[in-house]
Amino acid sequence: MTDRTLTRSRPRNAALLLASACLLATGAAHAQSAPPQPAAAAPVVDKSIPKIPAGPWQGPRLPDGQPDVTGFWGPAFGSYLNLTDPEGISTGERQRNLPPREQRAPSRVSDPADGQVPYQPWARAKVQEYQTYYANPIKPEYVDPLARCAPPGIPQALYMHGHEIYQYPGYVVFLFDQGTRIIHLDNKPQLPDNIKLWNGDSRGRWEGNTLVVSVANYNGKSKFGRSGEFVSENVKIEERYTFDTNGKRYNYEARITDPTVLTRPFTVTVPIRKYTEADKPRPVVYAVREAKHAGKDAIIEYAEERACIEFNSGHAHLPSAAK
Amino acid sequence: MTDAPIPAQRPRGIRLLTAGLMLLASHLAFAHDAIPRLPNGKPDFSGIWQTLTPADDDLEPHAARKDAPPSAGVIEGKFIPYLPQALAQKKKNFEARETADPRTKGWTLGVPRGIYYPEPFQIFQRPRDLKLVFQFGHTVRTIHTNQTEHPDVIGDLLSGDSRGRWDGDTLVVDARNFTDQTWLDRAGNFHSSDLHVVERWTYLDANTVEYKATLEDPQVYSRPWTLGVILHRHREKDFQLIEDYRFTLDFDQYYPPKRDKN
After folding, report:
1. Domain span holding position B207
2. Is A63 close to B39, i.e. CB distance below 8 A?
């Protein structure tokens, strides 16, 4: 099983992680390098965003009263590489034939209706400049911070690979493949404004089936994909995580306001699905293994150190990672 | 009035005193027992913790030097029982500590260093596991407490693989599968990938935890040895972790794009 060999050694793990990230990109390219076939050839995947109305939570609750949404989650489809065309060509990737746009997953920008980020002209020019030099980064600012092992940030973390949600009295904690978010539910004041963070500073509250999170102190340094969209350190983000009572899905919505780079606020929407014991482990997306123990019931646990990832060792920062 | 009532009162006074002492004793016992617990009765280490001990400067006893205040050290038996070759390596590390310490690159601190590094870490605890989130590097370490064992096949990990069990109210953690890429302190004390750590976490009172770690590494040490620090709960109003992704400081000035000035 490839998911098991992934965990064999940390340096290899980091290298494989990079490899698998590349595979995600080239795998998609390979799958579609043949002349485009009508959807008949591929398994039918529902690309629509499920309707999950905000309302009361009817599902199980934790002892502290929070809706129980603990577990492994990940984007329902598409890669993180391209924000507005999740199954389209990634920046730096060679051209290839694609199914028509309407057969590919919709833009994650759900408002405005044209699916594009409402940039001020100078900011749009910066995005285009980044795309132009992505494959040939002649200046440090053209290197994706992700490639330097920085956290993917908000909202990219929600559609990059998979994530785990943990819940504790007073907290919801997100463990991403690169980065961790601690959502405070106690309404304590947010940090002083001059402190800027890769994961921002988050305050949340439950409204029925919806976790509503206000993000401040965000440093704006992460991109929104290889497509290079960005915001500034003056951004404010309001997130809504609306969970389906059946426990299988949630919709993520981020309302992004930033007068420094935008002409108006915009909304990113990401449909997210649950991963359970019934799913086959997958590198980085659902990197789990069965824990070793004397009992009979299968216990699933995360299999990889969140290497590049939580902490910095970096794809190549550790000398042994290059071996 | 005679003196008679006085001796009669004295026993009463003594009785009251005794009762008071007994109350005090039971109150102390209660206070001792009043540590936070999970619904399943196990001690609950949830909270934000930090040591006051300058262990991270140098685990061993040392006089003041320019980069470290003096300290009597935190090791049982004072010094790390290095094998001769390892001691030579430690001395090299010490000489190069200003740049060779993985901390200076912002790398994950590892085990046990993350625990006594002078920045807070937060424990989130459920019956099945503890998540330790370290402010430095925003690293996450998991201690499994669900009767699971170390995996048969596993790589070398910066924070190792940690499996915990309860010995009364003490959490005993067995950690192994480490890399050789972390140090134990700023003085160049180190280990190999054969490191095996057994930790003991015990509440002294509701806001204080005694932490002991026994380190075994036949490539580096002649025998197992033990260090100990005290961890204090952060109780400042609204105290929280603030992510410290130090390794990003070398490149963070390149982002986000700025509007050209003209």
Report:
1. 47-235+243-248
2. yes
- Using CA atoms of A124, A127, A129, A133 in order, give the dihedral in degrees to the nearest 10: -170
Measuring CA to CA, how many Å separate B170 from each of B80, B139, B147, B149, B212?
25, 24, 15, 18, 11
Are the beta carbons of A143 and B146 separated by less than 8 Å? no
Residue B83, classed as helix, strand or coil, is coil
Is the CB of residue A258 less than 8 Å from the CB of residue A234? Answer: yes
pLDDT at A149: 86
Per-residue pLDDT tens over the stretch A170-222: 999 999 888 899 999 999 999 999 999 999 999 999 999 999 999 999 999 99
Across the interface, of B39, B138, B153, the residue whose CB is closest to A310 is: B138
d(CA B178, CA A22): 27
Interval A43-49 mean pLDDT: 70
Query: Nearest-CA distance from A180 to chain B in Å?
Result: 7
Interatomic CA distance for residues A320 and B13, integer angstroms? 75
**B1 & B56 share domain:** no
Residue A12 neighbours by CB under 8 Å, 6+ apart: B155
Q: What is the DSSP letter of A169?
A: T
Q: B194 and B78: one domain?
A: yes
Pair B90, B6 in one domain: no
Per the domain annotation, does B256 fall within a domain? no
Q: What is the pLDDT of residues B197-209, one digit of tens each?
A: 999 999 999 999 9
- pLDDT for A287-307, tens place per residue? 899 999 999 999 999 987 765
> How close is the nearest chain A Cα to the Cα of B259, in Å?
7
B118 and B13 inside one domain: no
Interval B111-131 mean pLDDT: 98
For residues B64 and B159, membership in a common domain is answered with yes
Q: How confident is the model at residue B3 (pLDDT cuts 50, 70, 90)?
A: very low
- Establish if B244 touches chain A: CB-CB under 8 angstroms: no
- Is the separation of the CB atoms in A74 and A286 below 8 Å? yes
**Domain-located, residue B254:** no
Q: Average pLDDT over chain B, rounded to whole?
A: 90
CA-closest candidate to residue A73, choices A297, A255, A243: A243
- Cβ-contact B164, A17 below 8 angstroms: no
Number of structural domains (chain B) is 2
CA-nearest residue of chain B to A173? B124
Quote the CA–CA distance of B10 and B149 in Å, as a whole number: 63
Asked whether residue B140 is domain-assigned, the answer is yes
| A123–B259 C-beta distance less than 8 A | yes
Task: Write out the two tokens for A227.
Answer: 């497509």
pLDDT of residue B169: 98
Is the confidence at residue A47, as pLDDT, over 70?
yes
Judging by beta carbons within 10 Å of its beta carbon (0-12, 13-18, 19+), is residue A201 exposed, middle or buried? Answer: buried
pLDDT at A45: 62
B155 and B225 share one domain: yes
pTM of the model: 0.86
For residues B11 and B139, membership in a common domain is answered with no
Same-domain status, B94 and B150: yes
> pLDDT at residue B225 above 70?
yes
Residue B172 covered by a domain: yes
